[in-house]
Amino acid sequence: MNKNFKRDPIKFVRDKAKGRYKKDTECFICAKKENLDFHHFYTLTPLFNKWLKENKIKISTDEDVIEVRDRFIEEHIQELYVDTVTLCHDHHLKLHSLYGKDPPLTTACKQKNWVKIQREKNGLPSVDIR
Fold first, then answer.
1. Is the backbone of residue 64 left (phi > 0), alpha (psi -120 to 50) or beta?
2. Helix/strand/coil percent split, the chain, to 5
3. What is the pLDDT of residues 39-56, one digit of tens each?
4. Helices 44-54/9-17 angle, 10° precision
5. What whole-number distance in Å separates Cα of residue 117 and Cα of residue 91?
6. Can you tell me the distance from the alpha carbon of 42 to that of 84, in angstroms, rounded to the nearest whole number?
7. pTM (2 decimals)?
């Protein structure tokens, strides 16, 4: 991380965005109600980095991130709030063990399909994922 940053830039984005997250009360895959995580199919770090590059925005300080985060959030409502799923911690870890810590954005559809298949394997009704 650049020495001008006091913390990971994506944390500023996540902190601002998370107030609007709609985490469900059970795991989408197994219906477990404890230790739930909110998963973005479009992982925030690569999504934010792609957006910065496409918009030719350079950030080098915490203040730079804070200055652009509202615009990023508003331009990515779909990825931040719709293309998401609530998973128990175990299923969340399993998903990331398959697709990586920061899965490439191109794997979002594959992740959705994996989640859907795992749900069906657990005997829960088939449901289309947003």
1. alpha
2. 55, 10, 40
3. 999 999 999 999 999 999
4. 110
5. 12
6. 8
7. 0.88
